[in-house]
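Q: What changes when zinc ion is included in the input?
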Amino acid sequence: MDYCCLFANQTPAEAEKHMAFELIEEYGRAFYATDGTIKHYLFTRDDGYRELQRCRRCGALFLHQHSEHHSPNGANNYYDDYFQVASHEEALALNEDYGGFGLEKSFTGPSFRRAHSKSETTLTWYRPPLADARLEQLIQKYRSGEMRKGDLKGLSEDQLRIFIKSVVAGNTTVKAAAYSTWKKDI
Ligand SMILES: [Zn+2]
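A: The predicted holo structure follows.
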């Protein structure tokens, strides 16, 4: 599985700025057993839901778990976890196997979390080593001028990383001209 281009950013804050997800499927608040009873809830704390989302930039799929902690004084906390999955089937299997906290504890793949309250937002991620040696190699090639820069001359290093990740992930919607130049090297 290719990691989402999101994880090619330098920091979770940069990644959040570049997030462009679309909703694929809603899974609701609970997972039901075949007899119709609730097996477990698909969130932690007081309320929430899960859904499948897709990165518009590279096509990576994420099981998104939204959880809410309700406070009597109105100072609620919200948690949005994005667990990257390889397929729709993997998301369904995780829904069946794990309730809210179970999923948080068991998931070992790449993930991104936004925790927010009235006063602050905290962004964290778990980023397995990116396909990485390869990404670094390409960056080096770019810096040393071995790779034709073309349209990419003005890009910052962060943008460049995203671009390379997108191309590696097979996203052909990135600037077509640059893509065809780069694809030869990638
Ligand atoms: Zn992506």
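Observations recorded in class: Residues 4-6, 55, 57-58, 60 surround zinc ion (CB under 6 Å).
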